[in-house]
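Entry for 16G complex. Fields follow.
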Amino acid sequence: MLAIADPEPDSAPILSLRQPVTMNATPIRLDPQPSHAELARLCDKYPVSMESERTMEYGTAGFRYDAAVLPPVMVRVGILATLRALETASGYHVGVMVTASHNDESYNGVKIADPDGGMMNAQGERLAVYLANERNTDALVQYFVAQQAKYTTEKRIHSGNAATEPVVVHVGRDTRSHSPFLTCLVVKAARACGALVLDHGVVTTPMLHHAVLHANHVKFLPKLIPHRPHVDGYQRLLIDSYRALLATTDNQAPLQRSLLVDCACGVGYIGLEALLQTLDQQSSGFGSSTTIVPTNGPDSGGPLNESCGSEYVQKMIIPPTWYDADLFTSATTSEGRAIKPASVDKSYCAALDGDADRIVFFSEGGHGSDFFLLDGDKIACLLCDFVGNELGILQKAVPSISFLSLGVVQTAYANGASTAYLEQKLGKANVAIAKTGVKHVHAAAHQFDIGVYFEANGHGTIVFGDRYYDALNEAAAFLSTAVQDTVATRALRRLETLPRLVNQAVGDALSDLLLVDAILTLRRWTLAEWNAMYQDLPSRQDKIRVQDRSIIQTNDNETRCLAPASVQPRLDELVQQHPSGRCFIRPSGTEDVVRIYAEAATREAADTLCQAAARVVHDECQGVGEPPSIQSRM
Ligand code: 16G
Ligand code: MG
């Protein structure tokens, strides 16, 4: 574990360096302390390295590096966030999340949430790269002062008077040991720039995005979704919607089962515990049939993301290590709810990643069956199926509502069998493949009225366009006057609940967990029944190191390698040797590796294809070390 000495001892009153075990229901308000001298001091104290040739890049999910090199970046992100908030003439809030998601404890990272709660746009990314790499403190401070003056003047013209809205930056962080200190640097710089900081403390990434979206609710939150700011609002919204969806059941006999959740030894554990407490407080007499059992928390003894969590389970296709020694000892809450029934079985499990924006499900044997994985592709199919059915019922009962397009966005990692299933179900035109990374899939999903997107690694959500809300309004008006149609009314209730339960800003493991559990409960499906929607083609992934991964270029959706030119012909040749074979390579956006994906009709063929493709990468892209073999998979 990497420990950074705290060179800002006066930071203690701002952010406790002790990891809290619970979440702040509402953020701590930290007033602006505008001072260009303090800003210059911070920039000087945490200078961008003069020696390093490296350019700090704002990658797929923000700046993500070894934590030791991040302090200068954090100071500059404080400036960036303030400028992003200043830039919006209407005084919108923005967010900063300090996390390195699925990476190991030695990494950390930071990303910005734009006013709509989504990922920062490309213009912001360019500014981020400039600020993070500017070595000259005077130039940096002058740039900030000039931009601040420009935006402030524009704002005054816009608002017609001198009193303008405060500039507000929300910050949140994960449970990494260095996150408090790194967050402290963002906070100090933002306050020195004149921003009011709302410190949410330890939160999951999607909670921070939720907080930003709901802070800017007037402009960005669809009318159907109640305004629920902060972390307590997030919890209430999710739990109310989960209960509302389950309440649409027509089957009174509750299904009793447990759902064991591997939280990657990260912040998802704290978030899930907090959600379950809200469920307890608000659900007296509520026949919730699933006992959700969070495990692998930050205090479980397991290292963050190591041999556990969604990345591990999905990439290795094996169960996680269960670190909690007392996992199978029964326990109840003070309200009497069983949180650890003695009979927790492992036939219904889920795994989150280190910042809880991804989830995969799996069954670890039980009843004589083997391990099987239900990844983001399976979740996408379940959601499309559910939404498609309910929409079909509503459209039949209310033919006057306009046609709504239901589409799905996947990435090159989507299993070929899932793509075939979705194309057959939704039509080829409604299945799109986008480049890896939330910003790409999220943007592509907006082309549909109902856009489901999921990366195979479990990051995904559903976005709903204006026409969706209009259609539901019209259907509600029609059904309130028509002869009672209980099936259509139930479909309407379900479709109205979805945008509230689903995080509209970003993929969210906790929201997806509740959504999938509610759908499975309504259908009375086991994981085996869900898994039977289609049969995955066997697939294999690998990653290898090369001297410089930036030499690898791909086409837009990463299905073909364009450079080095010698790679793709060799991959094509390999693919032809295997029935149903498919394979691609791409440089990782979060780690210093090249990723390889292969699938084929049999497990053996997928493994062989992956191994051969890894060799091609090693040969053609200046691989580091020995040529890889399938046994040496990392
Ligand atoms: C980040 C992305 C995720 C993507 C993954 C790919 C966000 C919020 N997260 O975690 O969508 O699948 O990177 O990682 O954009 P890779 O480039 O290392 O394969
Ligand atoms: Mg993540």
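NOTE: The radius of gyration is 25 Å.
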